[in-house]
Design a protein that fits this description.
The complex is a heterodimer of chains A (98) and B (267). With 98 residues, chain A is α+β, with helices and mostly antiparallel strands. Chain A contains four helices and four strands. With 267 residues, chain B is mostly helical. The chains are: A alpha+beta (98), B mainly alpha (267).
């Protein structure tokens, strides 16, 4: 499975680690709601350590996307609730009316 | 535990947010081949933006570095003041200087943290720009192949792949730049505040030429001390060896008479 860490690019994660990661992802949701910063940083570390970087010139899409490694809990929550990604108007011609 | 089914986890949700953005763009395209060049242009612009972002963060980092040097100098100066005050028996002044030094060290530690964070941001953004660069180059090759070889229908799948991939990267980089800009703006506000502190005398300005109160006292002590020592020197001169010297410049006879006058006293 391919996982992206925002600001760091994509990692290819093996099957065994994917199982673990899926588990971690479920826990992550509870952690984010509880306000547990550590759980989120632990997941970032896990992907960095267990994954192999995907070459920059390939066009894969990630199944999982992790926030920036130094993101605060507030930033993570904002990303999840806003769902706003800057550059909408930059990437594609028909992405928005603006 | 009711949220398990409804909230589908964090990483999955973020990836869906990214995908939704790419799909929205893809849905609106008629002949996707026509949008390839335009999209490429946007990618190149984004690349310029990231590079500018890297430069901005670097500028911000250098400014912090400069301020750290200034604060360090100021802190060293306080240290010297404390030593000098102590050597003159003024513990009260030494204490005041050390208090100033502690305040400066606090500022300095804070800036060191900011510096490290900016440095990390700069490194990451540099890498992000390299990744985007590689992807944009690959996209350029891809788009030419797609335009040359495929019909609109055939091209669709390939373009979808390429667009989704580049869209995720662009979204990532877009967020990274936004964060860098926010951080740089914060740093500039802080740096501005410290510049103001240094300039306004809140850090007891020596830069502007107005000496601080501790320095005024020390200078006074120094002046007092040099007056005292000059007085002592003058007294010494007047008291002993100087008289014959002055007389010697006038005539030799009076020096002789002095010497003869002294003889009966001694004997």
């Amino acid at each position: 499975m391919i996982v992206r860490i925002l600001g760091e690019g994509q990692y290819q994660v093996g099957d065994d680690d994917t199982t673990k990661l899926t588990e971690m992802d479920r826990e992550l949701d509870a952690a984010v709601q509880k306000g547990d910063e550590l759980a989120f940083h632990a997941t970032v570390r896990f992907v960095r350590e267990s994954g192999t970087p995907v070459p920059a010139d390939s066009f894969e899409t990630a199944e999982f996307i992790l926030p920036f490694s130094d993101a605060t809990l507030g930033e993570v929550r904002k990303l999840l609730t806003d769902g706003k990604i800057p550059g909408d108007s930059l990437g594609f011609p028909s992405a928005g009316p603006a | 535990m009711k949220g398990t089914a409804a909230s589908m986890s964090v990483m999955k949700r973020v990836s869906l947010i990214f995908r939704a953005k790419a799909n929205k763009a893809l849905d609106k395209m008629e002949d996707p081949r026509e949008t390839l060049d335009y999209s490429y242009q946007q990618q190149v612009e984004m690349l310029t933006r990231v590079r500018r972002g890297v430069a901005d963060v670097a500028t911000s980092r250098k400014r912090v570095e400069l301020q750290m040097n200034q604060l360090q100098k100021e802190s060293d100066r306080r240290d010297n003041q404390a030593r000098s005050a102590l050597s003159q028996g003024r513990e009260d002044l030494a204490r005041a200087a050390l208090q100033q030094k502690a305040g400066l060290q606090g500022q300095l530690n804070d800036l060191q943290g900011q510096y490290a964070s900016l440095q990390e941001q700069e490194e990451k953004l540099t890498l992000a720009s390299q990744r985007l660069d590689a992807k944009v180059q690959a996209f350029r090759t891809k788009k030419e192949t797609i335009k040359a070889t495929y019909t609109a229908a055939e091209a669709q799948t390939r373009i979808n792949e390429a667009f989704s991939g580049i869209s995720e990267e662009m979204g990532d980089v877009g967020l990274a730049i936004q964060r860098a800009e926010d951080k740089t703006a914060q740093m500039q506000a802080r740096a501005g505040a410290i510049d103001e502190l240094l300039a306004s005398g809140a850090l007891e300005d020596h830069v502007g030429g107005t000496p601080d109160s501790i320095q005024v006292e020390l200078d006074k002590l120094g002046a007092d001390h040099s007056i005292e020592s000059e007085l002592a020197r003058m007294k010494g001169e007047l008291g002993a060896g100087s008289t014959p010297q002055i007389e010697a410049n006038g005539s030799g006879s009076s020096a002789e008479s002095d010497a003869t006058a002294a003889e009966p006293q001694d004997g």
